[in-house]
Amino acid sequence: MKVSVVGAGVMGCATAWALRERGAEVAVYEQFDLDHARGSSHGRTRIFRLAYPEPYWVRFAQEAYTGWKDLDLSVLGLYGLVELVADPAATSARALEACGVPYRLLDRDEVRALGANLPDGWTALHLADAGVVFADRARHAFLQAAGVEVETNRRIESTDELDADVVVVTAGSWVRGLVPDVPVTVTRETLAYFKREGPPVASIVDLSVETGGHGMYSLHDPVHGLKVGAHHAGSEIDPGTEGTPDPALVERIASWVRERFPDVDPEPVEAQTCLYTTTADDGFILERRGRVVVGSACSGHGFKFAPAVGRRLAALALD
After folding, report:
1. Dihedral class, residue 153 (left if φ above 0, else alpha if ψ from -120 to 50, else beta)
2. How many domains are contained in the chain?
3. pTM recorded for the entire structure
4. Which residue of 152, 207, 240, 256 has the smallest Cβ count within 10 Å?
């Protein structure tokens, strides 16, 4: 079967890998260069974790973890992850227990040993099988394992122009250009890098009691030491327009670093942007519509799920 994949971000690369696993003939198209920085998949690291407050997402992450092992475990840096939350009932503990994932609670000194401050009255949950996925390396690992060449700088205006039995659309923030009724919102998010010396440390996230998702987050960066962002804090934009980091968000991020990480210089050494393509419930859209399979799978937390998403999209295309 001939399958075309539109979009060579992490989900498109993972889908090509999963399709080739099952013997499909695959062509991949990317409207920019392979390593462009205008979308959602560029950069050195993303958070990898099994910890979610809902068992559905924990099991989905376990499925993805199996996929990362099948691809190449070296694309993960398992430095651990710590959830910090004001309400102890808002941690991922119950969902992790339901899915058989071990964790432990840390006291203030243990959190401090990881380089962070635990606010008075807050709870810290530590997960060992977590840390980062090396993002750029992971995308290329999928393509290398698949043995697929990407046709770059080729913008697909309509799925009808592709000679394929099935077309998988993994176009990220440009998905509505090919599937107009996909219910997503595109925002430009800001992140910043800080100089931190020493070996990699655990990813650290402040959980939002209101949403159960991340408020602020930090993770290892192999160049500067620490990468930090404010989750779902950006403004809605047209993905076709280029943008720059939001100075107000850079200051908000730096303020959190000043409060959370006493050993880190709170002056950013670099700031960047990335795009979020988000559904109303932060879920993923993985569905087949006739000849077209839609994979809109990020909502600001999708990278870690790429092997599982790729295999699900391949199943939709081939089954």
Report:
1. left
2. 1
3. 0.96
4. 240
